[in-house]
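Researcher: First entry.
Model:
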Amino acid sequence: MFEFRDIEMIRAITRHGGFRAASDQTGIAQSAISRRIHHLEDRLKISIFEKAGRGVRLTAVGRRLLDEAETLLESRERILNELTQGVMAGVVRLGVAETMTHTILPRMLTMLRSRHPLLRFEISIDTSDHMSEALLADELDIVILLRDLAPRGADLTPLPPVRHGWYVSRQHFDLPEPATLRDLARLPIVSFPKSTLPHRAIVQLLSPWAHEALAVHGSASLATVLHLVRQGFGIGTLPHDIVATWPHADIRELRVTEDAQLPDLEFAICHLPERAGKIGKEVTLAAVAAAD
């Protein structure tokens, strides 16, 4: 319906008080300016200017048109500046394992906001296997997930290991300490979802010691695991850092024998370089700095 050039003409006429003055300032013939405005009024079926003494002024409709169009001009200038000056802007689709949301994520995003205020983040909290698939399907740009589940071909940077232990309600379970694999196998356990590596590792660890069917419940929400442990539903496997952020949960780490100790969780941040090369490197640097 109208072009950027039309709006620039309207703005020049308004700022300089008339068609002749706009012609003098822009170097465009007054007749050319008049024809452009006349054709625009015909297309839009409106009157943009009205006479005011020896000059012209915007009509009410003309003011509305210019006000709204000024926003478009400002957006155009911003986009051109970002593209030509290398400014990082736009939306980053970030997938994060829940463990990381309570540890490095807040610090990482705060760093990125201070360095690149025009970036916007859409954050998805999911299991590592789902995030790996979403990265390959171009549904996520950058993911923080269990290292062993990073997709082939991804640019991967390891993050510091996360300690992982057994937790129990102070009120609901009376276990010997250090607890053995046999002690643990006879109790209900709440852990990561069934599809995850930590869940499978726990089942493999305890199955030889279970006299009956092993009861390992899975949840994608670590907060849910924590609350279930607190209420005495079972004993839980949780990252130490998660429990540390919930001191009011009133659960404690259970001392276990050496063969029952859980391995650290190995996380990594990764992206596909052909899709998110520059921003992927920037977010990776922030993640590593936040983990220190």
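Researcher: Second entry.
Model:
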Amino acid sequence: MDLSQEELQFLSIPDILRESISIPKQSPKTFYLITLTLIFPLSFAILAHSLFTHPLLAQLQNPAADPNQTSHKWTVLLIFQFCYLIFLFAFSLLATAAVVFTVASLYTSKPVSFSSTVSAIPKVFKRLFITFLWVTLLMVVYNFVFVGFLLLVVVAVDTQNPILLIFSGTVIFLLFLVVHVYITALWHLASVISVLEPVYGFVAMKKSYELLKGKTRFASVIVFAYLAICGVIGGVFGAVVVHGGNKYGVFVRIVVGGFLVGVLVIVNLVGLLVQSVFYYVCKSYHHQGIDKTALHDHLGGYLGEYVPLKSSIQMENLDV
């Protein structure tokens, strides 16, 4: 990022996207290896997951299935789902740690290599994991509320109550469009903060909330666009590759599946880059300068390098 800290606050969403896309050019080998080892497995697992679960679900829904076999298949399905979630969670945090660390290293002119990024991941992962636990707690509360209003929809349909149906349906729509998108934006920014600042967990969530002020609309548009693109990719993959056996040949399904995995890899990489750049945009908007020397030392601390005594990588607010 060649822009000054003062200029970052004026970036529009297209500007943020262009700035993010240009970052891998500064260290193509590092980003190629990060993409190949972390982002590709994550993207492939997201799409290929339905290829394995669809046959099992089809067999479980068969009324003529043997009860003993059904019990076994349920066990297999639950074990597979558990392993999938662990894999998804692990690679999601690993990819986030790798991209955020690499972008910050380039920002501070710190030497960048895939080996240095991999060496830093263990300590970064721990911080991201604690932040993720706090986000999970918040999502549990959100899901309880969401399920509660889904039950209201069922009650409204059973009792044929149009007012209750409209009310609960509107709340569900707003919960996803506003609350879910906002929590996702909060989580993504908190993840960057957990890597780049000496805070994590609830403190990182609180700081993320403060940084989003004034940039909430930008964050919401970016997150919603990302979720929408992923939704379209998943929908097309499901329609053609998973359920399209009767309409499309094996070759077409393989080509389309490979193409969609490639697109999702690019979307995920760009999403992580945008996530990193957006942090600097928010810092600039709130006139919170970033001491590059302190950030350089902070990143070096992940690698076991000598870290001078500093109270924070964040300079005093310029408004004070």
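Model: Note on the second entry: The first helix runs from residue 5 to 8.
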